[in-house]
């Protein structure tokens, strides 16, 4: 399946105005770890990337960023232990271990 | 000279203000004089394309059947595929494949009685295949007489269809009619054409544009016995799609990933709002209307097959969908916080990390968060109520060792002070916000002794906590929102391994069953009330989700998702002022917030432009 109806970028969420209601109504957008954003590829979403000083990425580049970020989180999760803590307690404290994310 | 009244059958009302939106439907087409603005005014139809859920399989050169709210996407390619998907007005789901994979075919009928005709299985292998769909299976039926691809069709059912034009591979003017059992050649088109568009029925159809080999703009109208040339579309094109009838239609898309859209009023074509995503070799809604059409898949820039779907509306009503936008970022990333207030004046307190709990609270002014006074009690999985200047925090947890909290604290916009304790220490309430500082509600949760999943609720009157009505289902990590006498408890965990999707409504005395959530759901943000509408967003279903849903007091509708996957965060505000704060979106804690904007449907009068 072709994937090119999406555009991929890295952009820092600067808060208010980063994604406006108009943006959200004009195109689909979804955020992922490592400040990776995936948008419907249209004129409006390209303008959104430019407006937010985003850096366009290929899908492969974006996936690598996300995967590296998730892997780092997995390692951190594995290394974060408290003495006498059960597995269930660890999950209750930290949440479930991060899982792999595949970009659309 | 004829008067306006003689021509139009009505005089022009003289008003000092516009007709209100509430009477737009009955005043459609009426022109009036607004003496305040000095302008002739009318409710004028707007044309909009809105992106909807994408197909699961990218494709072009497909066939479609049905309408904007019930559509079938059939085959396509290249390479040729047999995949069929069904659209229900919200999303596409896998359907039953056609028997022979092919592209450059045409479709007609509905999602329960469709037909897939002609097409190409491989380059140079044009087909006379005809398959009919009865809502559960595709069956081979009588073949068309002239095997061809790149043809068009018109027909509202699977038993009354015309198929015209196409390529064998030579471009043809052939026209055949299907009566449910066999195809019969009838009067040919006046102009040979392939990759043309069709609209209408087997007795009243339009053949729109096409190519042989160059693109043309010709349009022909079919009356059941012959084709008549009528006014051309404004832009010559092929690989386009259409919807509507011989008196009101819409044609869109075409070569060079065209986004051009033209309206037909029964006489002439007028350019209107472009597709959001220009495409050629796309498909439409063969039995759709001018008022409600659909553009499905297509080639968004060769060889970029598209999953893109868009809905077209031609209406005096302007529909503005629900949407989420970024709010100001909180200063301390965290999950399992408590929240209060709304998107103009929010309050966030407690949370995790550090493990064990956090006492930091922050205030929001509609654009930025600033540090406020800290909670007296470090805690997470805490619940909140009230506003930024009259807030309430209660319950929660510190860990390790596990210590479930019964303390409540009141915020006056400056500092937190101790209030009276909950009757029973309770945690795992994050996501809950019910009531005000003087009329709050604690809903279920994880109570002492651990692990007691409780159905107990408690009501706060500004001084003391008293027992409220018991939930029908004990639960924790649910969404809860509303007022002390108008609250919702949504989903959560009930102690079994799986999440639950049951919903309960509270009237201040007792909990009763509400409309079931769209799916089993937990750890979401919730905002609003039963009586004025509610919204939930994010959470676990069971994987972390960005899905959001609104509740109208009876049923839930999923709508545009959060911009960031997240769970374990509070929501706050009325539905129209809902605010989602922090949480964690695997794999990390978030500072991002999101603000909800409810959609609307309204008509606005506009100046009449005679140019």
For this structure, what is the CATH homologous superfamily of the largest domain in chain B? Kelch-type beta propeller
Radius of gyration of chain A: 17 Å
Secondary-structure class of chain B: mainly beta
Strand order of the largest sheet of chain B: 40-46-47-48-49
Key words describing this protein structure:
heterodimer; A: 104 residues; alpha+beta; 4 strands; 16% strand; B: 611 residues; mainly beta; Neuraminidase; 3 domains; four-stranded mixed beta sheet; 1% helix; elongated
Structural description of this entry:
Chain A has 104 residues and is α+β, with helices and mostly antiparallel strands. Chain A has one domain. Chain A is 42% helix and 16% strand. Chain A starts with 5 loop residues before the first strand and ends in a 10-residue tail after the last helix. Chain B folds into 3 domains: 4-44, no CATH class; 55-320, 6 Propeller (Neuraminidase); 329-597, Neuraminidase. Chain B has a 5-stranded mixed beta sheet with strand order 40-46-47-48-49, with no helix packed on it. In chain B, strands 1-2-3-60 form a 4-stranded mixed beta sheet, with no helix packed on it. A 4-stranded antiparallel beta sheet of chain B has the order 5-6-7-8, with no helix packed on it. The model of chain B has no long low-confidence stretch (mean pLDDT 92). In chain B, β11 and β12 (138-140) form a beta hairpin. Helix content of chain B is 1%, strand content 40%. Chain B has 611 residues and is mainly beta. The longest helix of chain B has 5 residues, at 4-8. Chains A and B meet through α1, β2, α3 and α4 of A and β28, β56 and β58 of B.
Secondary structure topology:
The complex is a heterodimer of chains A (104) and B (611).
Chain A: E1 6-10, H1 21-26, E2 29-32, E3 36-40, H2 43-51, E4 55-57, H3 59-79, H4 87-94
Antiparallel strand pairs in A: 1-3, 1-4, 2-3
Chain B: H1 4-8, E1 14-15, E2 31-34, E3 39-43, E4 46-52, E5 63-66, E6 71-76, E7 81-87, E8 92-94, E9 106-109, E10 114-117, E11 130-133, E12 138-140, E13 152-154, E14 161-164, E15 175-178, E16 183-186, E17 197-200, E18 205-211, E19 215-222, E20 227-230, E21 241-244, E22 249-252, E23 261-264, E24 269-272, E25 292-296, E26 309-315, E27 317-320, E28 323-326, E29 338-341, E30 346-349, E31 361-364, E32 369-371, E33 383-386, E34 391-394, E35 397-398, E36 403-404, E37 408-411, E38 416-418, E39 426-427, E40 432-434, E41 440-443, E42 446-447, E43 452-453, E44 457-460, E45 465-467, E46 479-483, E47 486-493, E48 499-506, E49 511-513, E50 525-529, E51 533-537, E52 548-551, E53 556-559, E54 571-572, E55 579-581, E56 584-585, E57 588-589, E58 593-597, E59 600-603, E60 605-607
Parallel strand pairs in B: 1-2, 40-46
Antiparallel strand pairs in B: 2-3, 3-60, 4-26, 5-6, 6-7, 7-8, 9-10, 10-11, 11-12, 13-14, 14-15, 15-16, 17-18, 18-19, 19-20, 21-22, 22-23, 23-24, 25-26, 27-59, 28-58, 29-30, 30-31, 31-32, 33-34, 34-37, 35-36, 37-38, 39-42, 41-44, 42-43, 44-45, 46-47, 47-48, 48-49, 50-51, 51-52, 52-53, 54-55, 55-58, ...
């Amino acid at each position: 399946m072709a994937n090119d109806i999406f555009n991929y970028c890295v952009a820092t969420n600067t808060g208010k105005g980063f994604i406006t209601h108009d943006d959200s109504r004009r195109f689909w957008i979804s955020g992922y770890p490592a400040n990776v954003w995936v948008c419907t590829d249209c004129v409006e979403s390209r303008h959104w990337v430019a407006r937010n000083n985003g850096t366009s990425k290929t899908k492969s580049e974006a996936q690598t960023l996300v995967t590296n970020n998730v892997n780092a989180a997995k390692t951190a999760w594995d290394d974060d232990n408290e003495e006498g803590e059960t597995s269930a307690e660890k999950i209750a404290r930290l949440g479930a271990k991060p899982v792999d994310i595949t970009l659309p | 000279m004829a008067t306006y009244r003689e021509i139009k059958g009505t005089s022009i009302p003289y008003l000092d203000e516009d007709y209100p939106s509430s009477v737009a439907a009955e005043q459609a087409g009426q022109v009036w004089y607004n003496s305040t603005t000095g302008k002739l005014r009318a409710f004028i139809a707007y044309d909009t394309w809105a992106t909807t859920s994408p197909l699961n399989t990218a494709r072009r050169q497909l066939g479609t059947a049905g309408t904007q709210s019930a559509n079938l996407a059939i085959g396509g390619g290249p390479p040729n595929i047999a995949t069929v998907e069904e659209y229900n007005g919200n999303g596409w789901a896998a359907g039953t494949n056609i028997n022979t994979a092919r592209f450059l075919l045409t479709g007609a009928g509905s999602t329960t009685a469709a037909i897939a005709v002609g097409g190409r299985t491989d380059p140079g292998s044009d087909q006379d295949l005809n398959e009919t769909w009865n809502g559960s299976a595709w069956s081979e039926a009588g073949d068309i007489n002239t095997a061809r691809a790149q043809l068009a069709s018109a027909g509202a059912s699977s038993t009354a269809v015309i198929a015209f034009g196409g390529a064998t591979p030579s471009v043809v003017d052939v026209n055949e009619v299907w009566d449910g059992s066999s195809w019969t050649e009838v009067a040919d088109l006046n102009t040979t054409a392939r990759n043309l568009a069709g609209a209408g029925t087997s007795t009243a159809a339009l053949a729109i544009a096409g190519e042989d080999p160059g693109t043309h703009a010709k349009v022909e109208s079919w009356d059941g016995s012959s084709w008549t040339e009528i006014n051309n579309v404004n832009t010559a094109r092929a690989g386009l799609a259409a919807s509507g009838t011989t008196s009101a239609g819409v044609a869109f898309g075409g070569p060079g990933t065209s986004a051009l859209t033209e309206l037909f009023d029964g006489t002439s074509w007028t350019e209107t709002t472009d597709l959001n995503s220009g495409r050629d070799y796309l498909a439409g809604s063969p039995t759709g209307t001018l008022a409600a059409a659909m553009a499905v898949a297509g080639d968004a820039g060769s060889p970029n097959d598209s999953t893109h779907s868009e809905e077209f509306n031609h209406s005096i009503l302007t529909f503005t969908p629900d949407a989420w936008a970024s709010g100001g970022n909180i200063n301390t990333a965290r999950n399992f916080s408590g929240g209060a207030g709304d998107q103009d004046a929010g309050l966030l307190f407690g949370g995790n990390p550090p493990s064990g709990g956090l006492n930091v609270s922050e205030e929001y002014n509609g654009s930025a968060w600033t540090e406020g006074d800290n909670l007296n009690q470090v805690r997470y999985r805490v619940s909140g109520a009230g506003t930024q200047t009259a807030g309430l925090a209660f319950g929660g947890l510190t860990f390790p060792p596990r210590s479930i909290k019964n303390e409540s604290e009141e915020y006056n916009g400056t500092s937190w002070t101790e209030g009276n304790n909950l009757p029973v220490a309770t945690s795992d309430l994050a996501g809950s916000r019910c009531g005000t500082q003087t009329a709050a509600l604690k809903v279920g949760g994880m109570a002492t002794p651990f692990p007691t999943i409780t159905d107990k609720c408690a009501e706060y009157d500004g001084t003391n906590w008293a027992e409220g009505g018991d939930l029908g289902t004990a639960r924790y990590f649910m969404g809860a929102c509303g007022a002390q006498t108008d609250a919702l408890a949504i989903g959560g965990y009930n102690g079994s391994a799986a999440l639950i999707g049951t919903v309960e409504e509270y009237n201040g005395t007792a909990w009763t069953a509400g409309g079931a959530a769209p799916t089993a759901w937990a750890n979401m943000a919730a905002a609003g009330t039963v009586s004025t509408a509610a919204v939930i967003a994010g959470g676990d279903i069971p994987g972390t989700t960005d899905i959001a849903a609104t509740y109208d007091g009876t049923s839930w509708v999923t709508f545009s998702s959060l911009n960031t996957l997240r769970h374990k965060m509070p929501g706050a505000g009325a539905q129209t002022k809902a605010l989602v704060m922090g949480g964690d979106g695997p794999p990390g804690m978030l500072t991002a917030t999101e603000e909800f904007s409810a959609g609307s449907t309204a008509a606005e009068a506009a100046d009449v432009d005679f140019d």
